[in-house]
Design a protein that fits this description.
- The protein is α/β, with parallel strands linked by helices.
- The chain folds into three domains: 173 residues, Rossmann fold (3-Layer(aba) Sandwich), CATH 3.40.50; 97 residues, no CATH class; 37 residues, no CATH class.
- 39% of the residues lie in helices and 17% in strands.
- The chain is built from 14 helices and ten strands.
- The strands form two sheets. A seven-stranded parallel sheet has the order 3-2-1-7-8-9-10, with helices on both faces. Strands 5-4-6 form a three-stranded antiparallel sheet.
- Strand 9, helix 13 and strand 10 form a beta-alpha-beta unit.
- Helix 3 runs antiparallel to helix 4.
- It is globular and about 55 Å long.
- 45% of the residues are buried.
Length: 341
Amino acid sequence: MALFSGPLPLVPPSARRQGDGSGAGPSVVALGGGHGLSASLSALRLLTQDLTAVVTVADDGGSSGRLRHELGVLPPGDLRMALAALCDDTDWGRTWRDVMQHRFSSRHGVESALDDHAMGNLLIVTLWELLGDPVAGLQWAGALLGARGRVLPMARVPLTIEGDLLSEVQGTLRLTTVTGQAKLAVASETGNVSSVRLLPAAAPACADALEAIELADWVVLGPGSWYTSVLPHLLLPELRDALCRTSAKRCLTMNLSNDTKETQGMSAVDHLQVISRYAPDFSVDVVLADPSVIADQDEFERAVEGMGGRAVFGTVGASTGKPVHDPLRLATSYNDMFGEN
């Protein structure tokens, strides 16, 4: 017997409407991608039930890249990670989190078409094919997982990130163009990133994401890979305009390491200057940073003031010493920030 006698409804019966005042806590929109956004969501879901993740859709590597290329869909990987981060810390939530993150691996040396595919990627793409709507598919996935919030793509079409790298070859400066997030993410191996852009340049932003930003109390951008997870939200014209116009308070969360494969040799102030370069009209209320990665706090505070906000310092890294945000410490800093403003 078929599970459904007709087409799936676009909204799952158990999905609670976000932003209607029925959840406790402020209305928060968190933007980013990958592990950085997952860390932010793991903290924010402890503070509010009115939480929306807006996720980059420029990934072109691994399982996501294969599905994007073979099926012509949005890359699902960062969306999957956001959904997994919103799962409750219960048996149900932990089980579904592990299901979503599970990767197939062939046994006994036999290659399989499923090798390295994440189960969650396949589930999300299945819902997209059944529903014909990426936002609705993510809403159904969130309802199945019991996610504490909703996940939206920054655009309904796959995007490509392209960057120019400046390198020195035998004493001569050379500018080369690198296309694709996977290649740009390891840019420092061949040069320093001098400029980045999204293709198509004028792609429309997801309307649901624009509405969420307009209605939010707080917008949280970062942490994450600066050029490929954080900056893309300010490269998409409609999304950048929404972030500049919103009446919500804006928080920029800094990374726990300045010297990454994308940002080798850059200081924390350099990170802020990148944001201001591509979105000069984007102002902040708060920039949250761990003091361990700020070489000159006075200089950093002046740079933040130049963006219209104030610097807040807090120990938000994991006790292991690795450059990974601790959800409880990050939640404490966010909670203090929400209470003060």
